[in-house]
Write a structure and sequence with these properties.
The complex is a heterodimer of chains A (263) and B (356). Chain A contains twelve helices and no strands. In chain A, helix 3 packs across helix 7, helix 8 packs antiparallel against helix 9 and helix 9 packs antiparallel against helix 12. Chain A has one domain: MetI-like fold (Orthogonal Bundle), CATH 1.10.3720. Chain B has 14 helices and nine strands. In chain B, strands 4, 7, 8 and 9 form a four-stranded antiparallel β-sheet that branches. In chain B, strands 2-1-3 form a three-stranded parallel β-sheet. In chain B, helix 2 links the parallel strand 1 and strand 2. Classes of the chains: A mainly alpha (263), B alpha/beta (356). At the A-B interface, helix 11 of A face strand 6 and helix 14 of B.
Chain lengths: 263, 356
Amino acid sequence: MKSRKPSVPYIIWMLVFTLIPIVMIGFTAFTDKQGNFTLENFSKAFFYTDVFMKSLWIALLSTAVCLLLAYPLAYMITRMKESTQNTVIMLFMIPMWMNFLLRIYAWVTLLQDNGPIDMALSILGIHGTYIGNTFAVTLGMVYEYLPFMVLPIYTVMSKIDNGLIEAAQDLGSNSFNVFRKVIAPLSVPGIISGITMVFVPSASTFLVAQYLGGTDDIMIGDIIDKIFWTDQNTGSAISLILMIFIFVFLILMNFFGDEEAIA
Amino acid sequence: MKKIISAILTAILACSGAVCFAGCGNSYDGEVNVYNWGEYISLGEDDLPNVIDEFEKETNIKVNYTTYETNEELYNMLKNSNVSYDVIIPSEYMISKLIEEDMLLELNFDNIPNYDNLMERFKKLECDPESKYTVCYSWGITGLVYDKTKVTEKPTSWEALWNKELEGQMLMFNNSRDAYAIAMQLCGINPSNCTKEDVDKASEKLAEQKPLLKKYVMDQVFTEMENSQSAIAPYYAGDIVTMMDNNEDLDYARIESGANLFYDAMCIPSCSKNKENAEKFINFMHKPEIAAANFEYLYYATPNKAAYDEYLDEDAKNNTFIFPEDEYLDKCYVFTNVSDEVYSYMQEQFVKIQAD
């Protein structure tokens, strides 16, 4: 048996930054301001079911759009020359070097009335409002999280053994079948981690809707933020429910992933 | 080899430690930990003096300056963490709460001779009736900013924010206290003394307004109004004047029946370890030229009469939006007496309106 000593720092890390905070959130969620046990926070949390569902919906939508955009892209990148691949991946990474809020501000400027997009479309005779709605929020989220979808899928795809592809070709598969029978199944782990990395943060995100959405586009992350001002108990209860939802989602994803791999 | 490297590293560390020790130890006579609102003091932008540097130069006391974004953040820091601050600048309602919870120290006014520079009205604050804990830092009223190209008639009442013709172009405070105050005024309730029933009445008024609004905003109001994205918004007078400097289509409108009179005051929290230095800092902030510099940076009215008389230009002095006349201030209300319970309820209802 190998020594466990090297893992000690990580265990402490998890204890201090993961387990203890979760226990504290749990404790706050089940107590009132005086520290007595109560379930009232959860009944209060139910008021926000609609916002909750809408947030999950926006998160799912953004994840789906990200996947639709990222998958073909990642595939195309793996078909390029090695040096070009690095350049393209780099170009996708560069926006992430900038602060998250700055990027959202940039979208506000792009989408606002008489902004560049509005101006360009007006010349073509199309008039409309592009900010302050669910569309703008989804757009902002897709932009924000697309690299998190592209990178894992690309990494998994580029690891696929070329020999497998050649074998499939030798055995008479056309390029569609090579994709369907070899590349697609082998890229599933990348898709799974991509979906997880996009869905989880986008379900709990805040501020994006505040900047790009209208009065009806408030997300659960914003609600938690606001409630925490005066009522940390209900805020913790909502956070806990959100965590449970995400946990269930992750389990489902894992389940789905395993099955695919077996098939 | 490894040993040599680690020996060298240790030596370097020891040396740099010694250098720092020598450097840090000798240059200052003590320190003061100031915890202030973000962007709430003149730090040398726009050719104005950096008041913290000036203070350090004059007194040789090191200022550790940190900032917060909301009164609640300040409260949580004082209540739940072990940090020590010497000067804080909370708003009136938070001061009431801090006094009630015994979290402020009484000031020794012998160390704050510049207190005499203050206007009489701001020497006696509603939140500190005996004037033991506070020295007012700045004040102002709420009002409306509107775009003259979109709103043709100068509004005189908050009712302008319920105008159906401007649907989708109006902004509202994203802060329960200010939003409810507006709704309560329209319902004929005095916001400074409200009950839960009053909150419910105001909630209805706010729910009625929501579909007409473009957004609930705080800091975003600047870009919204300065870039002509919205027609009208309520905000704080000093900030409205700043917006008007950046977009000439904007104008301000005072609410005829009176509005919220708010102020922030310097206090020393009970966790302070450098009380005398804190008093020196508070005193320094009320040197007329320093108070004037802070005013020019902020555009929030200064309570410092000496600064007002000697250093302010006529335009600012005569602007009745920044410095309203006493008759107007008498019509305004101040937040002090709202209990924690009512305030929590208000916050909860406000979140519910937004979530609905």
